[in-house]
Amino acid sequence: MNHAPARPKKSFGQHFLHDRRYIDDIVRAIAPRTGDFLVEIGPGEGALTMPLLAVARSLTAIELDTDLIPALKDRAAGVGELAVIHADVLKVDFAALAHRHGVARLRIAGNLPYYISSPILFHCVEYAAAIEDMHFMLQKEVVERMAAEPGSKVYGRLSVMLQLACRVVPLFEVPPQAFRPPPKVDSAVVRLIPLAPHERHDADPELLHAVVKAAFGQRRKTLGNALRQLLDADAIRSADVDPRVRAETLAPEDFVRLAKRLAKRLAAR
C-alpha cells in the first residue's frame, strides 16, 4: 500500500531524514550484520529502518507516534521482520528486551528528537551492559558536548557521564537540508561503544550523578563551593582533587574518586 508522506509533528520534534547520501552514510557507519538484534529509536518514515532491515532481516523499532506505525509496517512487508514497540523510549527496559529475545546485547540506532536527546542518552547509558553499540543522529552541538575534553567550554555533565560509560566517536555532520522539514540547527552522527566490564567505574551511580550534577550546577564556582553540601575541602583533597579548581578542569575519573569519597563519608555517619 502506498502512503502519503507523513506530516511532521512539532510536538514530537519530528524532522524526517530523506537525503539518500546521508542515509547511506549512516547505514555504512552502523554496518548491520545478518542476525544482529537491531533496535531503532524513532524510525519515523523508515528512512533508516528499511536499509537496516534489508541486511539484518529483523529489527525492533520504538515509535511513540501511532500515526506512523501502519505505514512503517507496510513498507517493511517483504523486506524483513519488523517489530514495532509503541512506547516512550524513556520507559523501555533494554536489558529486559535483550533477555526476552535471548540475546546478550543490542545494537541501537536512531535519529533522536533533539528536544529530549540528553534524557534518551542518559537512559540508554543505564543499560550499557546490554548494548553492543549505539549510533545516533543528534544536534551537532550535543555531539560536541558529548565528546568534549576537560578544559573545553562545552565540557560538562553530559561529557562526564557518557565518557564514563562509553567511548564517544563523532562521525560526520548532516546539514539541515537533509531533513523534512529542515531543522534550524546542524546535525551530526555519533557512535557510542559501551566500555568493557574491566573499564567501567565502580562508584555508586546515584552518588556519582549527585557529585557531577552539583559540580556543574554553577560552573563559575570552585569545587569547594559547588560541592560544599556533599564534601568539604579536606574530603575533596583526600580524593586527590584540588577544591580551588572548577569542575570543567577535572577528568571523568576525578569525579569517580569524589563519588567514592562521598560514599565513605556517608558510610561513616
Structural class: alpha/beta
Listing every helix as H and every strand as E from the N terminus to the C terminus, the arrangement reads EHEHEHEHEHEHHEEEHHHH
- Overall helicity: 25-40%
The CATH H-level homologous superfamily of the largest domain: Vaccinia Virus protein VP39
Q: What count of domains describes the coordinates?
A: 2
CATH architecture of the largest domain: 3-Layer(aba) Sandwich
Task: Trace the largest sheet across and list its strands.
Answer: 4-3-2-5-6-9-7
- Overall CATH class of the largest domain: Alpha Beta
CATH topology of the largest domain: Rossmann fold
List the uncertain runs. none
* Count of DSSP H/I helices: 11
Dominant shape: elongated
Rounded Rg: 20 Å
* End-to-end Cα distance: 66 Å
Kindly describe this structure.
- It is built from 11 helices and 9 strands.
- The protein is an alpha/beta fold.
- It folds into 2 domains: 190 residues, 3-Layer(aba) Sandwich (Rossmann fold), CATH 3.40.50; 63 residues, Orthogonal Bundle (Helicase, Ruva Protein, domain 3).
- It has a 7-stranded mixed sheet, with helices on both faces. The protein has a two-stranded antiparallel ribbon with strand order 1-8.
- Helix 8 crosses helix 11.
- The longest helix is centred in the C-terminal third of the chain and has 16 residues.
- The model has no long low-confidence stretch (mean pLDDT 92).
- It catalyses: adenosine(1518)/adenosine(1519) in 16S rRNA + 4 S-adenosyl-L-methionine = N(6)-dimethyladenosine(1518)/N(6)-dimethyladenosine(1519) in 16S rRNA + 4 S-adenosyl-L-homocysteine + 4 H(+).
- This is Ribosomal RNA small subunit methyltransferase A.
- Specifically dimethylates two adjacent adenosines (A1518 and A1519) in the loop of a conserved hairpin near the 3'-end of 16S rRNA in the 30S particle. May play a critical role in biogenesis of 30S subunits.
